[in-house]
Structure formats: C-alpha cells, structure tokens
Design goal:
Creatine Kinase, Chain A, domain 2; 14 helices; 18 strands; globular; four-stranded mixed sheet; alpha+beta
Length: 503
C-alpha cells in the first residue's frame, strides 16, 4: 500500500570556465562549490572552519532492484575524493563527474520541492558570485541549468520518490514508464535540434525535451551509458525492509515553476496509485524508448502511441486518463500519502495544463518550459530570418538556461511563480520543517564543529575525546520540527543532545 511520498531532486548543472585555454570542468566545479562553502556568511564554513562532509558508508550504487549486482550491470562510480558537502538547509552539494550537483533536502510535498529547487538555483548563483570574485581578471565561471551541451553530452536532473518495498517492481516499471513517456508534454524543457544519428536539426529543428535523445533502454541500472527509462538503483536511504526509492533519471531540469510542480506532483500521485494497484494495465505503452523520442519530436502533440490493449492514444490523451485516475484516488483514498492539500492543487494544475495543450499550447507560456523557450527561439529566428538549423538558435537555447541573473533569457520572461523570492532565499540555509532534513540542517547550524559527516539516513557526531557517535535517521518522516524542534531548541551541547536521544 502507498506510503507518504518523501520527494527530492538532484540537479547536475552545466558549467563553463571562460577565459582559459584548456578548461577543466572538474576543477571548475570544485572551485565553484568551495568558493560557496568558504564564504564567511555560511555558518561554520568560514575559512579554516570545520565542514561536515558526506558519509559514504551507506552508498551502494551497484544494488539493483531486480536482484542483479555490478557484475551484471555498470554501476556509477563513487567519487569520494571530490568536494562533497552537506548544507545547513539539509541539501547535499558536490562534484559529480564533471558537474556541480545539488541534491535538495527531502521534501513532503511538490510545492516544497519547487521552493527547494529554486533555492538550489540561488545557491548556484551565489556560488558563481563567490568563485568569480577570486578568479583572475578575464576569467569567469558560468553555470547553466540545462541537460545537454549540444555536443553529444547529457547530464541529468534526477527525481526521487519514497515507495513501499512490497510493491512489485515490475508493476512500478510498467505504469511509471507510461507516465514518463507521456508527461513530456508538460515537463519538457525544450531543445533546439536533435542529437541522435541521422536526426539533425533539419529533421528535428525543435523538440519537447532535452533528455529523450539519450535514452536507449527500457529498464537498467546505468545512468550515464545506455540510459534506461526506468532506473533500477536500489538505495532506499531509509529502512530497506519497508521502503524503496524510485530513482528517476528521465526528466529535464525545469526553470518554469509550474513545470517542476507538475513533474513531481503528478509522478507522486501516479506512484501512489501504483502502490495501491489502481491503474489500468491497458495503459502500457509499446516500444517505450521509441515512443519517448517520438513524443519529444512531435510539436503537434498528435503522435499516436500504441497501447497494451491495441488501441492508440496521444500522450495528452494518456495523461487525461491518468488525471481521471488521480481524481478518483483522492476522492477514495484521500491526500495523506501524496502531500496533503497540495495534491488537490496538483490535480487542478494538471487539468489546466492539459486543457491548454489541447486548445492552445502558447497559452502555457511561462508555465511550460518547451512552450516558453520555443516562443523565444522562434522570435529570434523570424526576426533575423534564420534557417531552423542555424547554430545561432542553439546559442539562444543555451542562453535560456544561463543562471546569471543579468544574462538569463528565462529571467527576463516573467514566468509564473509559485513561491515567494524571500522564502527562496531563506530556504538556502533553512531546512524543510516536515522531514528528517530538519534534524540534519538544524544540527549543522547549531554544532558545525561537532559533526564529522552526514548522509541521508544518519549523522556522525564527535561525542567527546576521540569518540564518534552515529545517529541513524531511517524514517524520512521523523526528525521533523514537530518531533525534535523543542529538543534542538533546549539542548545546549552535543553531549546533552546525544544523551537525550538515547533515553
């Protein structure tokens, strides 16, 4: 049966080091993050101050939900030597391969995800400012919130959803695949051109998503090679007997807040319905990898998908069926497992966007990224009489994702917002109050010099002398302000905290 949907987003950001002959993205990413961590305004992270690093003891990326091991599949490498820090808002900020990556703290509803995703953007903006302040004249680090460099390389924006361990993984895969193939119509970030062989800009001048071109498998463990629509990494970061974590790698990095809200909110609802076995088996999509790409390439939103019962339906029509099921779910089962009252706003927005996609996609300008970006790209193309394959349009695409406030095309467009800018700024240092991220973040704020390391499900404290004490946090919905707020407010020392936690 469905469990409360604890949610998170991990975003890899594109990075460019301007003004150097041979830029190294790994070094650039390290410089970016270290500059942020070293600024005096970050509690406990001034120059020479102690800094809690990431605890890798529970990292097991080779575990596969299907029972395979790294001998059967290529698991992602763990780069323990790279900068890898835990922030006071409960987030993880680190170098992943050749990218700066920020994982939001755990959230209990999709609106909180929007807030934390925006806070992540703000942290990256501040990181650029801090890094560029110490770089030599003529050099600059620039960060992009996108998923492709246009040269055949793609980097991810991954989602995470807490699920019931008892739910059949095959059932998860079937229904989640249908949703992932079809949700692109409102989650796609938009892309100029195509990066598949024999599909150049003349064949696909613009498409819905940035990631569809890079997926080759239906199900698999990999995240960088032979990318699968359904990722099987089995790291719950919680009690493994009760929970699994669905690690979703098929989504785009969104700038429109409405798109992020729907990306996470609709998926949480679909997964809750999967747990309770309430979805129609006939909605299975045939040949999902080809379908994923076909939907992305079709700006008319009319591509027919063949379903398990032999009928055909468009991606929008499939989403209408999922929406109807979600309404029934909320009516029959309530909203406790899917973010509380916010779930009803997800359904309302879901309907509104589907209506817009059917009647007039341009009406979703500022809500759906691919619609918003396409307007900008087409405006430039028409104004300068450019060929659809002109590389200048690819530059416009990239500029849309530029996180520099004064250079970002997206920032100039006046997109609809769901969260207050002041709340965003506060969220860069303050954790969500309704998940275990609260305990992690508050402890890091209060005792930064006494925390040796932390990860999602535990923290390691210096308990006095040479003694270390690990505090497990295996339940994502515990460690909230309601549970431990008074405790953290009244404990003066780490020793007192550890003693009271033991009682």
């Amino acid at each position: 049966m469905a469990v409360p949907k604890t949610l998170g987003i991990e975003t890899e950001y594109g990075i460019a080091h301007r003004g150097v002959d041979s830029p190294n993205p790994i070094s650039a990413s390290s410089l970016l993050i270290n500059a942020y961590l070293s600024r005096s305004a970050e509690p406990g992270c001034g120059p020479g101050a102690p800094r809690a690093g990431w605890d890798f003891v529970d990292e097991s990326p080779s575990l596969d939900a299907r029972g395979f091991t790294a001998l059967d599949s290529i698991a992602p490498e763990i780069e323990t030597h790279m900068v890898n820090a835990v922030l006071t808002n409960g987030a993880r900020y680190y170098v992943d391969h050749a990218h700066p990556e920020l994982s939001t703290p755990e959230c209990a509803d999709p609106l909180s995800i929007v807030l934390q995703d925006r806070a992540a953007e703000q942290i990256l903006v501040e990181s650029m400012e801090a890094a560029n302040a110490v770089l030599p004249d003529g050099q600059e680090l620039v960060v992009y919130k996108n998923n492709s460099d246009g040269k055949g390389n793609s980097y991810g924006c991954h989602e995470n959803y807490l699920m019931d361990r008892a739910t059949s993984f095959s059932r998860i895969a079937q229904h989640a695949t249908t949703h992932f193939v079809t949700r692109q119509v409102f989650t796609g970030a938009g892309k100029v051109g195509c990066e598949l062989p024999f599909r150049d800009r003349e064949h696909v001048p613009f498409q819905l998503t940035q990631r569809a071109d890079f997926f080759e498998e239906e199900i698999g463990l990999e995240t960088t090679l032979k990318r699968p629509i359904i990722n099987t990494r089995d790291e719950p970061h919680a009690d493994p007997l009760r929970y699994r974590r669905l690690h979703v790698i098929v989504g785009d990095a969104n700038l429109c807040e409405v798109a992020t809200f729907l990306k996470v909110g609709t998926t949480a609802l679909v997964l809750a319905m999967v747990e309770d076995d309430l979805l129609d088996q006939r909605l299975a999509v045939e040949d999902p990898v080809r379908a994923l790409q076909a939907v992305s390439w079709d700006l008319t939103l009319s591509h027919p998908l063949r379903l398990g019962d032999g009928r055909t339906a468009t991606a929008v029509e499939v989403q209408w069926e999922l929406l109807a099921a979600a309404r029934r779910y909320l009516d029959d089962r309530g909203d406790a497992m899917v973010g509380g009252p916010i779930a009803h706003e997800v359904v309302r927005r879901w309907e509104s966007v589907l209506v817009g996609l059917e009647s007039d996609p341009e009406s979703l300008d500022g809500q759906v990224d691919w619609v918003t970006k396409r307007r900008v790209v087409e405006g430039v193309r028409e104004r300068h009489s450019l060929d659809p394959a002109d590389l200048k349009l690819a530059a416009v695409d990239l500029q849309y994702h530029d996180l520099r406030p004064d250079r970002s095309l997206f920032a100039r467009l006046g997109a609809e917002t769901l969260v207050d800018p002041e709340d965003v700024r506060a969220a860069t240092t303050t954790p969500p109050a309704d998940t275990r991220a609260y305990f992690r973040g508050r402890c890091l704020s209060r005792w930064p010099d006494r925390i040796v390391a932390a990860n999602w499900d535990s923290m390691v404290f210096e308990a006095g002398g040479e003694t270390l004490r690990r505090v497990p946090m295996m339940e994502p919905s515990r460690g909230t302000e309601e549970h431990v707020g008074t405790l953290l407010d009244t404990c003066e020392t780490v020793e007192e905290l550890l003693e009271r936690l033991s009682n």
